Every structure is written in C-alpha cells, then in structure tokens.
C-alpha cells in the first residue's frame, strides 16, 4: 500500500477517523475530509503525518455538488491522484420520524449526502483510476441494506443507501476491466466513542443487543475496508459486506 493515496469523506471523527489511521499505518497518503470539524481534522492530520506518510485535510460538504467537485480536484492535486476512495460521509437523523413528518430540506439533504454525493465523487475520480488501471472504491451502507427491506422511521436514509447498493454492484461490473473494485461495507449500530476504539478495548464489555455479545468498534469496520483495499483483493468486487456482529438494525413494527 506504500505510496497509494486514499480520500476518506467524513474522516475527522468516528469510523472515518479510525479508517484513516488504519490506512495511514499501511503506508497510504491520506486526504481527510470534514464539514465543520476542522480542529479534529487537523489534529488527526498531525497524527497520521507522524506515521511517515503524507496527509492533508480538505473542507467540503458532500451533500453539495460544487463541494464534491472541489474536493475531488483538490485531493488529486495534493498527491498526484487518488487510488482509493472511501465514501464514509452520510447524514443520518437519529430522531425517529415517519416519512410524512420529514421536512423537504431533510429529504433533499439525506438523498444528496448519502447517494448523489457518493456517485458524483466516484464520477470525478474514476478517470484517474482508469488511466492508472488500478482503484478501490468503498461505499458505506447499513446492516442488511442489500435486502431492500422496509425500515420504518428511516425511509429517506434507507432509500438512499439501498439505491447505493444497486449502484455499487453496477459500478463494480462496469469498472472491473480497468482494475477498479467497488464494494460496500455495512456497519452495525456502532455508537459514540466505540466508533474510534480498537477491538481489544471492548473485549469483555457486554452488549445485550448484539448477538456477538460485545459492542462493535471502528477497528472492526476499518479492518474490512483495509482488506478490500489491498492489491491482492482485486478479485473481490460488487460485494455488500455486513459488519454487524449479527445484529438486525431494522425492527419489524412501528412503536411510538
């Protein structure tokens, strides 16, 4: 992985942060992206630079098409091209609401941030990957996204991510001949500080909701992403991979 460049959206905190550290440790130059968390992004950039690789942070809102174009152009300029794209960023409204209660702005923001933004950034960076005949694209979904099930109170988010499932599979087929793989990683309900923790930090910590019995961590997700990005993983493409500990995040009934 030495000398490869990775762009990770929404990487100042959480799962994106942990993924950035993992790929930086593998020798990748890292382009971080943040929307408002500048201080966190700059601190992380300093940590990754200490690993002996290049690192830069670029502000951009993935739900805004002009920002997506600017982010892609700047990421390519910084290190001469982007080899790996991890589309981690994606707005999520934790408050439970039926679709009729969503504001128009929330609907547009969720669709743009979770589907259109990822598609546009892929589109912006694909020409360079094709030219080099090597690339890795990783999208983020949610547990069991490939089933396209009803998810009450999450209608817009679920629609965007299940649309991204189809796009992931299609793009994987279209780009395979250019040495580009496209996969989706679907984290379980990993919350708060656990998004940045290692597996060793949660061993022995009980989680009654998880069939595995422990909470999920950022390392669980980042390890899968890192594996998909390895040169030897070129035969793995078009996959939707759950990293959930067996948890089904979708409840079959609506309760208020």
UniProtKB/TrEMBL annotation:
GO molecular function ontology, one term from the record: oxidoreductase activity
InterPro entries, per database record: NAD(P)-bd_dom_sf, SDR, SDR_fam
Presence of the UniProt keyword Mitochondrion in the record: no
Position of the signal peptide: none
Keyword Oxidoreductase: yes
UniProt keyword annotations, A-Z: Oxidoreductase
Family designation: Belongs to the short-chain dehydrogenases/reductases (SDR) family.
Name the UniProt record assigns to this protein: 3-ketoacyl-ACP reductase
Gene name in the database record: fabG
């Amino acid at each position: 992985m030495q000398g490869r460049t990775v762009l990770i959206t929404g990487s100042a905190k959480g799962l994106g942060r942990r993924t950035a550290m993992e790929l930086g440790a593998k020798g990748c130059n890292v382009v971080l992206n943040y929307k408002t968390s500048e201080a966190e992004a700059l601190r992380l950039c300093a940590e990754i630079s200490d690993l002996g690789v290049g690192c830069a942070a670029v502000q951009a809102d993935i739900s805004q098409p002009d920002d997506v174009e600017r982010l892609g152009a700047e990421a390519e300029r910084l290190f001469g091209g982007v080899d790996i794209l991890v589309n981690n960023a994606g707005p999520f409204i934790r408050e439970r609401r039926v679709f009729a209660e969503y504001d128009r702005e929330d609907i547009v923001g969720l669709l743009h941030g979770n589907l259109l933004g990822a598609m546009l950034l892929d589109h912006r960076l694909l020409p360079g990957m094709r030219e080099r005949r090597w690339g890795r694209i990783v999208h983020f979904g949610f547990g069991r996204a490939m089933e396209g099930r009803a998810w009450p109170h999450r209608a817009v988010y679920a629609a965007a991510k299940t649309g991204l499932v189809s796009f992931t599979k299609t793009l994987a087929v279209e780009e395979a001949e250019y040495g580009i793989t496209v996969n989706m990683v679907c984290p379980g309900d990993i919350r708060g500080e656990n998004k940045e923790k290692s597996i060793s930090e949660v061993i022995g910590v009980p989680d009654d909701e998880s069939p595995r019995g422990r909470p999920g961590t950022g390392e669980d997700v980042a390890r899968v992403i890192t594996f998909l990005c390895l040169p030897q993983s070129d035969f793995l493409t078009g996959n939707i991979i759950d990293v959930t500990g067996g948890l089904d995040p979708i409840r079959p009934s609506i309760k208020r």
